[in-house]
Amino acid sequence: MIDRVDDGHLVLAAGIRLCLGAHLAGLEGQIVCSRLVRRFAYIQAAGPRSAVRP
Ligand code: HEM
């Protein structure tokens, strides 16, 4: 069985190291978000901003 303690989400760094692909992943994220907004102009949040966990 694969298991782990829930320490919250990891994003691009969890311990002493930083993800070496962090800048590439950030760039990809920017491209995805801008294309998504351009393609679906009516896109909107499904809930209140307070529901988004930082
Ligand atoms: C959304 C995309 C990504 C997420 C969420 C992510 C997340 C992570 C995390 C959590 C770690 C471990 C950090 C630690 O040990 O504290 C890591 C390490 C690493 N990531 Fe990513 N990563 C992403 C994309 C990428 C990409 C695109 C590349 C390369 C093209 C990449 C290459 C690496 C490498 C080489 C390490 C090992 C760094 C080391 O051991 O010093 N990652 N990443």
Provide structural commentary.
The protein is mostly helical and 54 residues long. It has one domain. The chain is built from 1 helix and no strands. It is extended. It starts with 21 loop residues before the first helix and ends in a 15-residue tail after the last helix. The mean pLDDT is 85. The protein binds protoporphyrin IX containing FE. Protoporphyrin IX containing FE is lined by residues 10-15, 17, 19-21, 24-25.
Share of helical residues = 25-40%
Characterize the overall form: extended
Number of strand elements:
0
Note the run of SSEs as H and E.
H
Helix/strand class:
mainly alpha
Bin the strand percentage.
Answer: under 5%
Instruction: Give unreliable regions as ranges.
Output: none
Number of domains: 1
Helix count from the secondary structure assignment: 1
Q: Kindly state the mean pLDDT as a whole number?
A: 85
Oligomer: single chain
- Global Rg: 16 Å
Bound molecules: protoporphyrin IX containing FE
> How far do the termini sit from each other?
29 Å
Describe the largest sheet.
none
What's a quick, concise take on this entry?
Helices cover 33% and strands 0% of the residues.
Task: Detail the topology: elements first, then pairings.
Layout: H1 22-39
Bound molecules: protoporphyrin IX containing FE.
